[in-house]
Design a protein that fits this description.
Structural class: alpha/beta
Oligomer: single chain
Largest sheet: 7 strands, mixed
Radius of gyration: 25 Å
CATH class of the largest domain: Alpha Beta
Bound molecules: nicotinamide-adenine-dinucleotide
CATH topology of the largest domain: Aldehyde Dehydrogenase, Chain A, domain 1
Strand content: 15-25%
Shape: globular
Number of strands: 22
Length: 492
């Protein structure tokens, strides 16, 4: 890409006054492209366009919306390798992870194409004679979407697809670190034939584009995925605006993976390595707390260390790389800071935790594994969002469960065990929105609800049919008709 990319506002590609470079974290000499930094005025234009498009778009037939979503899905899937490459190049997850995420985005659009046709209502008998009650769902209006950098295509897909399926218009503000994927996705959406104004891409800073979305009285709802501090700002602004906005917040995690004495060691190590370190540990569902019971503890630590030593940390686009770079210098500094904090707190760094040099200049870090961690330490309580995992020893199942639940977050929670009794008990008692048995805490299906409890989430769930709770509003309609008049007498 030689020319600077543009925003898509009111059906047109619009150049921005300011642009910024998108740098490849595997090789900082490689600039992916120049991307726009929109102004508040650009954002307001996009909001106006979405408002203007809403009356017509919200009355399109399910078939019209189905066809648009299906086209988007088809193009994403047909171009999965190319799109996955753009994603990995700018975000730093490995190429198979980038392509896998792209396929997931295509599947999500296909699922919501189907959802256009499945949306129904209810007809309910009234408690009053002659009255009928209908409960239907209508679109909420103009939805602002603010997304993070760590799933550059899947998260936008699981917000954009249901919003369109249920008849809403969109102002989409992606994270500044991943503009190329957002741009490529927007081009596909535009090519689907979507009417002008229905979908708007506004790339820029959170403090400018994001804040304008939050303050605008013309935005009806905001769906946000990102950190807790930004989520809190979204909630505050939503309540302060007139009218108040509907919100959906998906935020951080400090997800536990419990490993019991009776676990299959190989399964436990695979779950832990995948959950804690794949995607460079930059997943809200990452297993950053490995809670291991007494008798398996040392064997687990040995097997885990051996497995980690065999992992290749290198350029995300190179074949054979298991773990790509950290997303940028700021995140790498944060990860290294937590390694230092862990050591100061008295945790034992078993391996990793240092910056690595590779052929190309990038943000490489050796996956860090801490043992002898107490759950009160900062490295066990605060979200690090990098390739850093902590091992916490527990006496038995009860203590392991208590530690797992002793966190302000509640997104995903996992257990490795061969005991049905403990698996069942854990599923019922883990204080998290998603529970995994003998599976990594990260890695979910796209046709079922996604979301957490406590500090991880706020508002209705995303994904699957449950997405309609956020993207629609319920209407209860009553009507009287004298359909059952007194019958004439038989002799008449
Ligand atoms: P972030 O909160 O820094 O940014 C998220 C988005 O908010 C970005 O688009 C950013 O530009 C925007 N933003 C920043 N300041 C804003 C403001 N004042 N007003 C409006 N918008 C603003 O988060 P991040 O660093 O991009 O992502 C990492 C975080 O995302 C982690 O905490 C991670 O756990 C979380 N996350 C959660 C989920 C989930 O589903 N629970 C999924 C992925 C990531």
């Amino acid at each position: 890409m030689t020319e600077a990319a543009r925003n898509f506002i009111a059906g047109e590609w619009i150049a921005a006054a300011e642009v910024h470079p998108d740098v490849n974290p595997s090789n900082t000499n490689d600039v992916v492209g120049q991307f726009p930094r929109a102004t508040a005025a650009d954002t307001e234009r996009a909001i106006e366009a979405a408002r203007a498009a809403f009356p017509k778009w919200s009355r399109t037939t399910p078939q019209e919306r189905y066809e648009i979503l299906k086209k988007i899905s088809d193009e994403i899937l047909a171009r999965k390798d190319e799109l996955g490459r753009i994603l990995s190049r700018e975000e730093g997850k490995t190429l198979p992870e980038g392509v896998g995420e792209t396929v997931r985005a295509g599947q999500i659009f296909a699922f919501f194409a189907g959802e256009c046709l499945r949306l129904g209502g209810e007809a309910i008998p009234s408690v009053r004679p002659g009255v009928g009650v209908e409960v239907t769902r209508e679109p909420i209006g103009v939805v602002g979407m603010i997304t993070p950098w760590n799933f550059p295509i899947a998260i936008p897909a699981w917000k954009i697809a249901p919003a369109l399926a249920y008849g809403n218009c969109i102002v989409f503000k992606p994270a500044e670190l991943v503009p190329a994927t957002a741009h490529a996705l927007a081009e596909i959406i535009v090519r689907s034939g979507i009417p002008a104004g229905v979908f708007n891409l506004v790339q820029g800073r959170g403090s400018v584009v994001g804040e304008t979305i939050l303050r605008s009285p013309k935005i009806d709802a905001v769906t946000f995925t990102g950190s807790v501090p930004t989520g809190r700002k979204v909630a505050q602004a939503a309540i302060e605006s007139t009218p108040m906005k509907k919100i959906q917040l998906e935020m951080g995690g400090k997800n536990p993976l419990v490993i019991l004495d009776d676990a299959d060691l190989k399964v436990a190590v695979e779950c832990a390595v995948n959950g804690a370190f794949f995607s460079t540990g930059q997943r809200c569902t990452a297993s950053s707390r490995l809670i291991v019971t007494e008798r398996i503890h040392d064997r687990f630590l040995d097997a885990m260390s051996e497995r980690l030593r065999g992992l290749v940390v290198d350029d995300a686009l190179k074949a054979g790389t298991h773990i790509g770079p950290v997303v940028d210098e700021g995140q790498l500094e944060q990860d290294m800071k937590y390694v230092a904090i862990g050591k100061d707190e008295g945790a034992r760094l078993v391996l990793g935790g240092e910056r690595l040099n590779r052929e190309s200049p990038g943000f490489y870090m050796a996956p860090a594994l801490f043992a002898d961690v107490d759950n009160s330490m900062r490295i066990a309580r605060e979200e690090i969002f990098g390739p850093v995992a902590t091992v916490i020893r527990a006496k038995g199942y009860d203590e392991a469960l208590a530690i797992a639940n002793d966190t302000e977050f509640g997104l995903s929670s996992g257990i490795c065990t061969t005991s049905l009794k403990y698996a069942q008990h854990f599923k019922r008692n883990a204080e998290a929105g998603m529970v995994m048995v003998n599976l990594p805490t990260a890695g979910v299906d796209y046709h079922v609800p996604f979301g957490g409890r406590k500090g991880s989430s706020y508002g209705p769930r995303e994904q699957g049919a449950y997405a309609r709770e956020f993207y629609t509003t319920v209407k209860t309609a009553y009507s009287f008709s004298d359909v059952d008049p007194p019958r004439p007498a038989a002799s008449e």
